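Dear all,

This email documents one entry for the complex benchmark we are building for the journal club exercise. For each entry we list the sequence lines for every component of the assembly. Then comes the predicted three-dimensional structure of the complex as a token string, followed by one or two observations. Please use this as the template for your own entries, and keep the labels exactly as they appear.
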Amino acid sequence: MKVPDDLKFTKNDEWIRVDGEIGTIGITDYAQDSLSDIVFIEFLVDKGDTINKGEACASVESVKAAADVYMPASGEIIEINESLTDTPDLINSDPFGEAWMVKVKLSNPSEIDELLDPNAYKTMEHEH
Amino acid sequence: MYIPHTDADREEMLKTIGVKSLEDLFGSLPKEHLFRHLNLPPAITEMEAFNELKYIASVNETTENLTCFLGAGAYNHYIPAAVDQILRRGEFYTAYTPYQPEISQGTLQAIFEYQSLISAITGMDVSNASHYDGATAVAEAVNMAYHQFRGKRKKFILSPGLNPQYLETVHTYIPIDGNQFLGEDLPLSSPPSALYDLIDEETALIVVQYPDFFGRIYDYTQLIRKAHDTKTLVAIHVNPLSLGILKTPGAMDADIVTAEGQPLGIPLAFGGPYLGIFASKKEYVRKMAGRIVGETRDNKGNRGYVLTLSTREQHIRREKATSNICSNQGLMTLAVAVYLSLLGKQGLRQVATLNYDKAHYAADAITSIPGFELVFDTPFFNEFTIKCPVSAKKINEYLLDNDIIGGLDLSEYYPALKNQMLIAVTEMISRDDIDALVDLLSEVAK
Amino acid sequence: MTEPTIFELSSSGRKGFEFPKSDVPKAELPKNLLRENLPIPELSEMDVIRHFTKISQLNYGVDIGFYPLGSCTMKYNPKINEETCRLPGFLYLHPLQPIATVQGALGLMYELQEWLAEISGMSAVSLQPAAGAHGELTGGLIIHAYHQARNDKKRTKMLIPDSAHGTNPASSAMSGMHIVQIPSDHRGNVDLNVLKAEADDTLAGLMLTNPNTLGLFDEHLKEIIEIVHNAGGLVYGDGANLNALLGISRPGDFGTDILHFNLHKTFSTPHGGGGPGSGPVGVAKHLVDFLPNPIVTKIEEGTNDNPPLYGFLKPAKTIGRVKSFHGHFGVIVRAFTYIMMNGDEGLREISEHAVLNANYIQARIRDSYTVPYDRICMHEFVAEGRWQDAPEVHALDVAKRLMDYGFHPPTNYFPLIVHEALMIEPTETENKETLDAFSDALIKIAKEAHENPEILKSAPHSTPVGRLDEVRAARDMILTCTFPEVSE
């Protein structure tokens, strides 16, 4: 299971990459693997929406399961990776790269400190 | 009945389980009220039951013995003998939902063909594997539009021309909490253009009927164009038999099509089981409720069919699913698939044309009687509304005395319309039947 | 083996059915309302019969063999039911005919309402709901309406045990409730401590499947109902598992407020490849006025000379109609026939033998499969389709391998609280020889899982098609045949 060093994680298997006041969000290698072949993604937010930490921004589906993607931090949605709707399998093949889901302008950067660092995420016990 | 155990079987089985008697198997149940006597009629054999049910059935007067001009959502059509022969195959009717595709290809292929036929007659991209009936299909269209806009649009426009039973079902299904229903209180004479002013950016869906409850046929192309200006969805509820000749909802650019499938080979059977047809544009398929069958390949490369896109459904998405629907009307979809396959292109055109022609002959003949007139001058298919010189109730009593079931007395749903009647004419009605009706109407109006 | 689709079998100009020539003049339809193309297939009657007969043979049904699908009660469907529901006096009735012409049908519906009330201990029954989940929705809407009518509007919390039926959460959500899941304790009962903690003044109700999906009767039924009632909530009984309780114990006697029936499970009506079902709803006295519109009632009592007059009644505070007309009448006639032929004693024997059969299989396979809640079960039980020393084998593989032995697999991966669940419900109509053959097959498969796991992983080997690619189906989304002549 890949866990890149430059990201922060949630217990629910989302990752965020922080670059100044911009956060890029996706789901982890572990999450894509446990869902297996992903066939669909639906974005539950629109550009310009202000979303709180813990609210769902997207929903991903394999043939047997559906899972919501929750915001690791609050802020305004500034970009949505719409191309994933046509190629949801990218989430399986490149979860930390091309399969980023949304970019957010962080409204409360201190929330990032509450997230898991790579080591803590690696050793965490998954619920599913 | 139907328990095969011998005494010896029972003894041996109890011994294997490690208990002494059948009663011992119920030790975890509360002792109160255990094994109480049920006050039911004593058991009877198959022969006796059949006789008794034949008697009960004989008390009813049927559309076989009476001439039926009643429609209003259920229609008396001929069903080719071959349809029921297929439905009676135990391989079909004693199977469960096709969750194990390797041993359910019969059900799956039949549903796939049904979906294809519905798509073909409605002009829509996709159909699901059915809802319970026309009324619940309409309610599910409202539900689907609500989810399509993720609850952000809360206005729903319901045409006053919708079947009142469908309107009631929509209101039962969709809680008022924060939602707004418009349009249904408009005058019954309102054309589709009367809905234009109600449409805005908050409107999720417009539901119209085609032909509508009063039999009228409108082209909804303009309404749909108007609705799409604000990205509002439009659902058209159709009589599927009329699509043998009528312009398709797909050609009008409808987003959702619902229908009561009963006219396509399903017996009247006192109201059910019928079939809720549900089709849409492909882009909305993820919010569509109910099962869907898709084509795929097996591990040897052979074509096969599976239930697909299941993550939309309640057993995976739980409380976030669009709907809780689980059982569908599987066997009824089979009836429709067989019916449409038998009729084919020519047969479906022929039966739709027969309905159209006979209804128009009847309307002309009835309105030639002084005092009887058509309420609307809009085109109609196999059903039309007439205004009578006396109450519809009085007319229907007189007709029944003469072995005719008259049209729907509209005052049952619209108390003010005491003298109005909705008359349905199908291919089952002969010219002689219509002429006899006209004679009786002339008598009762005197 | 694959069969072409009806679209592929079509040949332009062929006819499978012809209507009589018209006896009235031709009427003109405005051109702008006409459809252009009608792209449906053209076949002869024999083509159609052969096609559907061929594909029927790719199916497995109760008429072919043992179908121990947990929670689905795949009992034998008596053939007399198929005759009674097709009697002309039932088949050719328009639902809106004057009530004077349909007294037989209405009387039958009235009797069935009464019988179901007697069997369950409920006060009144509506036959309108079309299926089990539809009954659940009806029940949820009744609970919602009941609290609203008492002006107790904050009650929107529905408690659902993790051993409940899968449809319960979605049904509750559609009734305007939010859902809180209640865990099971180590004996498979509802965890009373969690239940007590959640039973506050926002409680709308509890949806209790009893026996639950583990096939276990909750040992604290009376306490559960008391906790919910004391907090002001209502108890909804999911009657999908009623086949364990006929003539044994009535949910209504213990304070269940609402209960739905599955006529297509308990009362022998066929499943039809996924439907139609029928999901009547029974309620206790205080909820009778909320039942869906309409129910069948006696308008006039009968006398020595005259039978009673039956008609429809709109309950005073009805939630409204949940579908068109009066329910799945054809299914209702089948269930009526079945109850007539069984009576009090027959119904009790059904449940006794359903429970006997389930316990027998459980006892037979216990040494080969883990049974996580190992106590006397009711009409079904749950085993695990996994072994620590055969890690690559899953419940799905066991299920697929069972097909090679000629059986329909049990329900798998449900309930979610058991890992790799195999949920087995034999029903009362199976004889000991079948139960033994099935148990033997399961034991053999457990052995194969250890000795030759590949034969399980690649199963089934003897079915019309092999394992199907579900990912491909979801990605390709081919949901209709291609229409060769579509031009619209």
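Observations: Chain C touches chain B through 204 residues (CB under 8 Å). Chain C has 14 helices and twelve strands.
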